[in-house]
Amino acid sequence: MDxxxxxxxxxxxxxxxxxxxxxxxxxxxxxxxxxMYSWSDGTIYEGxxxxxxxxxxxxxxWSSGAKYEGDFxxxxxxGIGTMTSPDQSVYSGAWRMNVRHGLGRKEYCNSDLxxxxxxxxxxxxxxxxxxxxxxxxxGSWKKGGMCGRGVMRWGNGDLFDGFWLNGCRHGSGVYKxxxxxxxxxxxxxxxxxxxxxxxxxxxxxxxxxxxxxxxEYDDTGKFVLSRSSSIDVDELRSLSLSAVNRSLSMRTSTxxxxxxxxxxTSKSARSLGSGQxxxxxxxxxxAYEREYMQGVLIRESVVTSSVDRxxxxxxxxxxxxxxxARTFLTFLTGEHNYxxxxxxQLGIRYTVGKITPVPRRDVRASDFGKKARTVxxxxxxxxxxxxxxxxxxxxxxxxxxxxxxxLREMFKLDxxxxxxxxxxxxxxxxxxxxxxxxxxxxxxxxxxxxxxTLKKSELKVLLRMLPRYYKHVGDHENTLITKFFGVHxxxxxxxxxxxxxxxxxxxxxxxxxxxxxDLKGSSHGRFTxxxxxxxxxxxxxxxxxxxxxxxxxxxxxxxxxIYLDCAFLESLQIIDYSLLLGLHFRAPGQLNDIxxxxxxxxxxxxxxxxxxxxxxxxxxxxxxxxxxxHEPNSVSTAPGPHIRGSTLRAFSxxxxxxxxxxxxxxxxxxxxxxxxxxxxxxxxxxxxxxxATIELFEVYDVVVYMGIIDILQExxxxxxxxxxxxxxxxxxxxxxxxxxxxxxxxxxxxxxxVFPEEM
Length: 759
Hints:
A hairpin with a 2-residue loop joins strand 14 and strand 15. The protein has four domains: 92 residues, Histone H3 K4-specific methyltransferase SET7/9 N-terminal domain (Single Sheet); 98 residues, Histone H3 K4-specific methyltransferase SET7/9 N-terminal domain; 162 residues, Phosphatidylinositol Phosphate Kinase II Beta (2-Layer Sandwich), CATH 3.30.800; 207 residues, 2-Layer Sandwich (Phosphatidylinositol Phosphate Kinase Iibeta, Chain: A, domain 2), CATH 3.30.810. With 759 residues, it is of the alpha+beta class. One of its GO terms (biological process) is phosphatidylinositol phosphate biosynthetic process. This is Phosphatidylinositol 4-phosphate 5-kinase. Its EC number is 2.7.1.68. It is an enzyme of class 2 (transferase). It comes from Brassica campestris (Field mustard).
């Protein structure tokens, strides 16, 4: 311990009964001014005092050997100062109330260095961390871990630029190898998960500068892409092919496989044909579109110039359909769209805040009537009833407020959480419409709620069916039908009316949704053009290449509810609904000979530090999914935005309520349409034997999410039914609007093929 400060010339010396000692200036009975205080445990402070409290500049030495020199306030380390810990790590920077807070620099005992922003004692904000082995990360931090946009450069020359979560790569990014090869793709929890494109060293690839700009900030200061954003494979493919066409004119075969040691697996190499010579392979090598599942390569196709010519051929009608589908809302762009989202948040905050304090009561017939409306004008400067805001003047109409208030409570939705999710500072995100309706969709910042614009005809259907909908969801807590939380209308100052419905997001889950399908049980036009398929594209009936096998009791519960929901929709003469199906694939268990070698990216793909608390190692993923007896204390029992139903029972676990364990990932509660385990059996297509796409596996473990959507199209006249049946290739002569329609029968029959019964 440094004892030099004990030689302080005393102005006044006081020794206390507990062994503490003070020497210095006083004011009355309290230390004030310059002084030195020694505690009985050996801790010593020398510096400024203010009315008995340590304030100003000073030096504090603890008995453990730790030292601090800098600013104090009210007895706390507060301001700018330097702390030397017993292990000789040194922090210099801002402090608040005894914790590191603000800009600061810390050199660790192992010579690692962090320089950047701190919050409540942990790295948070923008910062740089340098390891002694030459690795360096520059980017965003949260709660002490790499989180958000950042760039990691390893000592061997490899580089990753993209998104991180809790110290792991998570979201979109580009990995550049030291030899010049590139992989543009998506990651989940540190491993490749989803689609991407790999460019071998020396091949043409998109501009990295353009890619980095696509991940940077937009004009509002927010990231253009979030950590959940997916790679635009089609754009990369087209950029790659345009580059290839400038330099290559020959035909590339499917045997052109990368020989990069970190990317090529022995089994996939054998699958793609070994008859070609190495020279021919390199000659044909261009780029490879790949799909990974928890780090395992499951599918690959070669991107060639010949494929490019075919992919660029588009039907003349495609553009006209896309344009006409969105014409009724084409004004919702740019500034208008921003005002619309802001108005929506203001209106919902007003609605929920007004109706929530009203004592709960049973709904009455009048609550569904035409007079069950709340109308309010929101001038920009505010009024006696509304706050001032930064948007434009608008009128707000809330439909059936008491009904939807009770529905939100029936769905076990907390009013404060509902408002914070939709009306919080993080705002709403516009997402692409998966259908032909032309509707615009917004997603809440926490992914729990989807807000969809409605046509006037859809609003009428919803309000007409609302009394029976209210009863159906009340009687059947496991219903797969979409949850509706509120219906509203905004009238802008120039008279334009925009109607909205707030719904639960069926795909709100911590797991990555690898495939999305909209299933109607029809084959007419129910496919997606290959050129339009991206990672988050919602595919259709003919695109579904799997059938799903699940536990006997889980399947029985599923079809029992499907029959009930279809009967309800039949009674409303609704025949054009869909099953929205989401699939999370788990990596196959037999991976020893095809998984990327665990030591292939040992240093460059892992981050570890005593202080940062980040450790990431590549290992063989665990096998399969595991159903276990339900334990309420081991899983989240909070109601989701889509399903509020009971925990399901499984035949394979003695007909007990069950949880789903994903080894190494999570333990989840199994409910109808949520976290349902199944095996996906790939249906082989003989017509695709010569395809450039290689499917490496035939059976996958999957987690299934589903719900019934598109229930606002009413067909209550013979003319409407005949028109719709013609588009679906049904026989209109077999359909009567006064009896259950054939639509539900074909819909259910199709689902029986998708989820076949075990023999």
